[in-house]
Amino acid sequence: MNLKPLFLLLISIVVLLKPIDFYAQEESKIAKKIYNKAFSLKNSNPDSSVVLFEKSYSLYLQSKDTLNAIQALFQEGFVFETSAKYAKSYDVLWKALLLMDNIENNGVKSVIYHRLGRVYSYYKREDKAIEFLTKALGLQKKMLDSRGLKNKARLASYYYSIAATYRELNKPDLAKKYLDSSYLYYRAKESLTPKSYLDFEKAILLTKEHKEKEALKIMEDIYPWFNTNTPSYMVLVYKYWGDAYKGLGDVDKSEKYYLKALKVSEEYKSHIDFTPLVYEKLSDVYLLKNNYQKAFKNLKKAKELDRIFFDSRSKENQSLLEIKDDYRLEKERQEKIIKEQYLKQLEQEDQIIKLQRIILIGSLIFLLVLGFFFFKHLRAKHHAEKELIRKTKELEIEKTKELLALKNKELATSALQLIEKDEFLKELKTRVREGGDKVKIHEINKVLRSVSVNNNKNWDDFKMRFIDVNKEFYDIIFAKFPKLSQGDQKICALIKLNFSSKDMARLLGISVESVHTVRHRIRKKMNLERNVNLEEYINSL
Are 323 and 293 in contact (CB under 8 A)? Predict the structure, then answer.
């Protein structure tokens, strides 16, 4: 018996029963390998890199891995950008942005906005370039704020790009402002853009300020990093290095660095869109050296390359300059479909909606009437409660005032009793001393020593009780008139208790004239006019 057909049937059933996720995972793994290969070929073989990125993008889509599909498109667009194929870079970036509708990821969206802004900047489209770069920065800020992240080092890269764009648009003041912000947020371990790029941008701005020597010092410092980590970027480094020497009038060194820039561009097939500027600078150098033949040749080469990369007649760039906004058109188409579906639904349910409106209007009127009376009731209740609270508060204030007055009255009475006690004791001492031999002198002295006639102690006791009752008054006096002496404060406290000058003198153990002198000094320290009554003023505090 032939078991082969049965075996094949069993295999087919097993394959069919395999979960779909298994195939998706396998496709995602294959896509990852292809993506990694494409990434490794970015600089050495950009054409092959583009093909592999496109293939990994398709596989990621099949496995429903949208985020990695967008990443593949982003890298493909970056390769197109460095190869000066800006129209293709533009199209790929917009395709990635359309996919962003399926996921909510402000981080990825900001990166796409960032690259689109840079693409627009190459064509001097300042409005669009700054619009997208600012959007990218805003999304990054929003994302960091929503996550509560204090470390905002990644913002340095976005400020750096805006600085570079303004510098390319010949707005060095704005460029310097954003570069300062980039330095402010930069952190060596957290920032996405290495510090060498920021220093390089600073050197370029220094050449624009005619500070070529400072710029050259920075170039020498950052050269090893670029030469080791991103040798293809040396196209730009050598070009601006040559500019610095040209600014110093050293045309031989300037020519040397311009030629190095062209050599690196040809070797790595990188930043070829930048070469027209280099040829143009070489033309200027040869003019200074009176070599008109080479000057003309380089200028002609610069014009030809500029036309290829940036002129509207170039097939590569025509579509970009027309700005076919696929994203906007797609969104409008989707909204139109939704509106049409909604209108059909309205037509089918027209009668039901009319009935619903009648019921709704009736319900709203009923609720409004009910709400009106309820609100009126609440308002009346609130008014009554408010009035009750006001009256209660007034009553409490009145009680407090009465209690304070009573305590002050008790305090004054206590003070007067202290005065009477002191006077009695003084009189007793005088009489006993005048008694002479009628009494035993040593016994009398013993009694007199035990009796302490101490005005200061009396005042301390009085002051402690006064502050306890009139703490707020004491705080105000001390705050408003810090220059008042302790003696001045004593007089103020006694004035508050409506003491007469005579009683003050008795309590404090001084003459009435001294009391008047202190009162006059207090008026001066308080800057009171003659027509202002001191007692009334102190009682008002």
Answer: no
**In this structure, are residues 67 and 108 in contact, taking their beta carbons and an 8 Å threshold?**
yes
Task: Give me the count of residues in the chain.
Answer: 541
User: Residue 357 — φ and ψ, nearest 5°?
Assistant: -65, -40
What's the token pair of residue 525? 């320290």
Q: Which pLDDT belongs to residue 483? A: 87
Q: Note the pLDDT of residue 398.
A: 72
Residues of the chain with pLDDT under 50: 1-20, 312-318, 320-323, 452-453
Please state the pTM of the whole predicted model: 0.53
DSSP 171-237: -HHHHHHHHHHHHHH--TTT-SS-HHHHHHHHHHHHHHTT-HHHHHHHHHHHHHHHHHH-GGGHHHH
**What's 103's DSSP letter?**
S
Q: Going along 253-342, which residue ranges are E strands?
A: none
Closest Cα to residue 162, out of 187, 190, 188, 141?
Answer: 141
Q: What's the pLDDT at 177?
A: 94
Whole-number pLDDT of residue 405: 61
> Helix crossing, 66-82 with 106-122: angle to 10°?
20
- CA R_g for the chain: 46
Q: Which string of DSSP letters, residue by residue, matches 47-74?
A: HHHHHHHHHHHHHHHHTT-HHHHHHHHH
* DSSP tag of 451: S
> Which pLDDT score, from 0 to 100, does residue 18 have?
47
Q: Which residues contact 490 (CB under 8 A, 6 or more apart)?
A: 459, 463, 508
